[in-house]
Write a structure and sequence with these properties.
This protein is of the alpha+beta class. It is about 40% helix and about 20% strand.
Length: about 525
C-alpha cells in the first residue's frame, strides 16, 4: 500500500478527538498545582514571565565544513549539549522552569511569586533579567578549545503576562505548553536580528518601571538597568559557581562520542526515547514544519472569555496533524513547538535514501496536512466552536539530518539538527496561512511534476491532498500514480457528471460529494 490520506478516516479521528475535549475546565494556576501531565481537557491560566534564549551561532557550527558530513553534526550536537546542560543548571538554581529546548532556542518560565499583583510581576521580571545575564556570562565560558566548540552567542527576549498552559506531547513525552502573547512575543524578540543582548517587551519594561520604546526589539537593556535587576533579584548564585559545577558535571557525566546509524524507513518505527549520543540516527531526510498561522492572535482574542474553545481547537488540530504524519505517511513527529509540528520523513532502504521519492511523498504529505487542517476547522465549526481566522503555513526541505537526545541520563531532550532543518523552518516562516514552500535542495532532487507544482518561486497556495496527488500523477510521478491507482481499486475509472470527468476517489479522500 502507498501512503495516502482518506477523508472518512480523517473525519473519524477528528470527531474522536473532539469528544475528548467536549467538556473543558479552565483553572487559575496556583502554587499547589503541578504543570506535569496536565489532563487533555484541562488548561491553567498562568501569570508568568517567559524568557527565550536564542543561540545565534548554530548555523555557523553547521557550516564549519564545506560538506555537511558527520564531523560538523557531531560538533554541533556537542555544542548544543554543553550549553543545554549549563543553562539547565542555571534554571534549577534560580527556581525557573525549562519549557523547551528546540535546537538553538531555549524557552523558560518564571512563575514565582505566584500571584498576579504588580509587585509580584515586577519581581518575576527582575529575576528573569538577572537570570538572562547569568546565562550570558556562563555561556561565554563554556566553549571547548580542544573540541573546537565555541562559546554560544546569544540574544534573549523577555515578556510577561497571562498565558494558557495545556498538555504538550503524547506517548511518554508530555510537558506543558504555554499559549498566548508572552511566549510568542519573547520568542520574536529573541530571534529578531543579529544584535546580542537582553530585550524586553514594553509590558516587561513597564513592570520594572522602564520607559516604553517604539522599537523594543532594537533597544537592549543597559548595563545599569541589568545591574538594578540583579541587585533586586538576589539570585544567590554566581557565574563562577555555575561554571565550576558544570565542569564537574561534565567530568562525572561525560557527553560521550556521537555515533550514528541509519533508521530503516519508515521513520514512524524510530523510538526517539531510546536515542543517546552513542545511539544517534543520521541520514538524508525531509524536514517539515507546519505552523498554525494566526494562532497567537486567536489565543489573545479568546483567552479571557472563551479559553475552552482554544483548548479544543489546539487539541484537535495537533492530534490530527500528528496522525497524518505518523499514520498516513509513516513519518516521525519530532516535537510540537507551540502550535507548530516538526516532522521528519524518508523513503528508501536501510542503506540509501530515495531522495526523489522522499520529496514526492513529502509534497503529498503537505497536501494531506492541509486537507486535514481544513477538515478539522470545518468540523469544529459545525459544533459551534470558535476557531478564528486560522491557516496552516508549511515548509519542507531535504538534506542530512541527525536525531538524538541531549543532556544526561534521566534528563534528556530530543533534538534534530541539520542545515535543512533550519531551512525548512525558514521556508515555513516565509509562508502565509494558505501557502506551502519547498526548499532549494528538495526542489533540485524532485521530479519534474513536483517542480511544476511549486514553480520557480518554490511556493504554492491552497495545496491540498487531492490537488497534490492529481497534479503529480498526471505528470507521471510514480508515487502519486501508485496512490491514485490504489484509491481507484474496485471503483469505476471515471464517472460522468454534468459532462465533467470526476475521479471517484476524490469523494472518499476529500469528501467532495457536491461534485455530482
Amino acid at each position: 500500500m502507498s501512503k495516502s490520506w482518506n477523508h472518512n478516516r480523517a473525519v473519524e479521528h477528528i470527531d474522536k478527538k473532539m469528544a475528548d475535549v467536549e467538556d473543558v475546565t479552565i483553572k487559575d494556576y496556583t502554587r499547589d498545582m503541578s504543570l506535569e501531565s496536565i489532563p487533555t481537557n484541562v488548561a491553567y491560566r498562568v501569570n508568568g514571565v517567559h524568557m527565550y534564549v536564542d543561540i545565534q551561532n548554530l548555523q555557523d557550527m553547521l557550516e564549519t565544513t564545506q560538506v555537511e558530513g558527520t564531523d560538523c553534526h557531531k560538533r554541533t550536537l556537542r555544542f548544543l549539549d554543553q550549553h543545554y546542560r549549563a543553562v539547565k543548571r542555571i534554571l534549577n538554581q534560580v527556581d525557573a522552569r525549562r519549557v523547551d529546548f528546540h535546537s538553538q532556542r531555549l524557552h523558560s518560565l518564571f512563575t514565582k511569586p505566584y500571584n498576579s499583583e504588580t509587585d509580584a510581576e515586577k519581581k518575576r521580571v527582575q529575576r528573569a533579567v538577572a537570570t538572562a545575564q547569568l546565562i550570558i556570562d556562563v555561556l561565554a565560558e563554556t566553549g571547548d578549545d580542544v573540541e573546537k566548540i565555541p562559546a554560544a552567542k546569544v540574544r534573549i527576549g523577555i515578556d510577561t503576562g497571562l498565558s494558557l498552559a495545556v498538555n504538550n506531547g503524547r506517548n511518554g513525552y508530555r510537558e506543558p505548553l504555554f499559549l498566548g502573547d508572552p511566549a510568542n512575543h519573547a520568542a520574536k524578540l529573541a530571534s529578531n536580528n543579529s544584535a546580542r543582548g537582553i530585550y524586553l517587551t514594553n509590558a516587561s519594561r513597564n513592570a520594572i518601571g522602564l520607559a516604553e520604546q517604539d522599537s523594543p526589539e532594537k533597544t537592549p537593556l543597559t548595563v545599569e538597568q541589568i545591574q538594578t535587576c540583579q541587585e533586586a533579584a538576589k539570585l544567590g548564585v554566581t557565574n563562577d559557581e555555575i561554571v565550576e559545577e558544570w565542569r564537574e558535571d561534565l567530568k562525572n557525566n561525560p557527553i560521550g562520542g556521537y555515533q550514528f546509524t541509519r533508521q530503516t524507513p519508515p521513520l514512524c518505527d524510530m523510538d526517539i526515547s531510546k536515542l543517546t549520543p552513542a545511539n544517534s540516527k543520521r541520514q538524508e531526510m525531509v524536514s517539515t514544519y507546519a505552523d498554525i498561522d494566526g494562532f497567537t492572535a486567536y489565543v489573545a482574542e479568546n483567552i479571557d472569555d472563551n479559553a475552552e474553545d482554544v483548548v479544543r481547537t489546539l487539541h484537535v488540530l495537533r492530534a490530527e496533524l500528528e496522525r497524518v504524519v505518523t499514520s498516513d505517511f509513516k513519518g516521525r513527529r519530532v516535537r510540537f513547538i507551540g502550535d507548530c509540528i516538526q516532522a521528519l520523513t524518508c523513503d528508501g532502504t536501510a542503506h540509501n535514501t530515495d531522495e526523489q521519492k522522499s520529496v514526492s511523498e513529502a509534497t503529498r504529505l503537505a497536501g494531506a496536512l492541509r486537507s486535514s487542517f481544513n477538515l478539522a476547522i470545518e468540523r469544529l465549526g459545525t459544533k459551534g466552536y470558535e476557531t478564528g481566522e486560522l491557516g496552516l503555513a508549511i515548509g519542507f526541505d531535504l538534506g542530512p539530518i541527525s536525531i538524538t537526545r541531549l543532556g544526561k541520563h534521566g534528563d534528556r531532550i530530543r533534538c534534530a539538527i541539520g542545515r535543512k532543518v533550519i531551512e525548512s523552518e525558514n521556508r515555513q516562516c516565509a509562508c502565509k496561512g494558505t501557502e506551502t514552500a519547498i526548499g532549494q535542495a528538495a526542489y533540485d532532487a524532485a521530479t519534474d511534476a513536483v517542480k511544476t507544482l511549486f514553480g520557480t518561486p518554490r511556493k504554492t497556495a491552497n495545496l491540498d491532498y487531492v490537488e497534490a496527488t492529481e497534479a503529480l500523477a498526471d505528470k507521471g510521478d510514480e508515487s502519486a500514480k501508485q496512490a491514485r491507482s490504489e484509491a481507484y481499486a474496485g471503483a469505476p475509472a471515471v464517472i460522468l457528471a454534468n459532462d465533467r470527468e470526476v475521479r471517484p476517489y476524490a469523494i472518499t479522500v476529500a469528501g467532495k460529494s457536491n461534485q455530482f
